[in-house]
Design brief:
alpha/beta; 9-stranded mixed sheet; 6 helices; globular
């Protein structure tokens, strides 16, 4: 699971900050304040579409950060999703309901001391069926990690991530349910504590997915100009989308992970800008 996943577990109110945005490092790319009177996307360009989405959500009282082609929303996806236009694809990793947020990680270190992420309750229960249905209705295409824990329709294409975990109590593989018109596909990508494919960094979230795996998932979409992650967590899906020059909308309920996602996506955006500048 990449994300915190707390976006829809219980019925508690979303972590909203009406009519206010905190001053984070993302402010350099801050969301535009111009008014928009509709929840529908603008007609002319991708940029104006994302600006319209950001402005509409701000008008509804959510904290919104617009970073390049990404719009990030602090709030409960049950409240945010009805305000969004339909997008090309949902790529997400909801809570599985297996208690991974409850301090399990700190007991698993064998080669090195494991990170202590604290003891939270956002993974104590799986996402409610009606929320999964809401998420699926938000896009034409869907890739949902942990789909084997939810009531999803039969599928011809499951995306299988072989984590090459070695000897520990993590699952050998994780499964993503999809509605893609293709056969089952698998990726081998090591994610075993300090042993990680390509030396990719981790440590922002207890169930963080590799950027490489999320880019592989996005690459399987028949059409995916705009990617939505309703359980954004620390923003891995957003980083992958930015690196692949896609538009991204991310929703996250937990403020600490929202701020991490802002930082990571801003860094990815800056690296992309530097690359384009050097190529000019």
């Amino acid at each position: 699971m990449t994300s915190p996943k707390a976006s829809t577990l219980g019925l508690e109110p979303a972590n909203r900050e009406p009519k206010a945005r905190s001053k984070s490092s993302c402010e350099a790319h801050g969301a535009k304040e111009s008014g928009v009177n509709s929840n529908s996307p603008a007609n002319n360009s991708t940029g104006s579409t994302m600006e319209a989405v950001a402005t509409s959500l701000q008008s509804a009282g959510f904290r919104v950060e617009q970073i390049g082609r990404a719009v990030l929303v602090l709030g409960d996806c049950r409240e945010v999703l009805p305000l969004l236009p339909k997008v090309d694809a949902v790529v997400t990793d909801p809570p599985y309901g297996i208690g991974e947020a409850a301090g399990k990680a700190k007991t698993r270190g064998k080669l090195a001391v494991a990170i202590d992420y604290g003891n939270d309750d956002w993974d104590n229960e799986p996402i409610a069926p009606e929320v999964i249905a809401m998420v699926r209705s938000a896009s034409r295409w869907q890739i949902i990690f942990g789909g084997n824990y939810y009531d999803c329709p039969p599928a011809s294409c499951w995306l299988v991530w072989d984590k090459e975990n070695g000897d520990n109590d993590f699952a050998d593989c994780e499964l993503a349910w999809t509605n893609l018109p293709k056969a089952v596909r698998r990726i081998r990508f090591m994610w075993n504590g300090m042993l990680r494919a390509h030396g990719e960094q981790r440590g922002d979230h207890p169930t963080q997915k590799p950027i490489g795996v999320m880019k592989w998932c996005i690459g399987h979409l028949p059409h995916g100009d705009t990617i939505l992650d309703p359980f954004m967590g620390s923003g891995t899906t957003g980083v992958a989308a930015v690196q692949m020059a896609r538009d991204f909308i991310g929703i996250e309920r937990e403020a600490k992970y929202f701020d991490i996602a802002c930082r990571r996506i801003e860094e990815a955006q800056r690296q992309g800008d530097l690359f384009l500048g050097s190529a000019a």
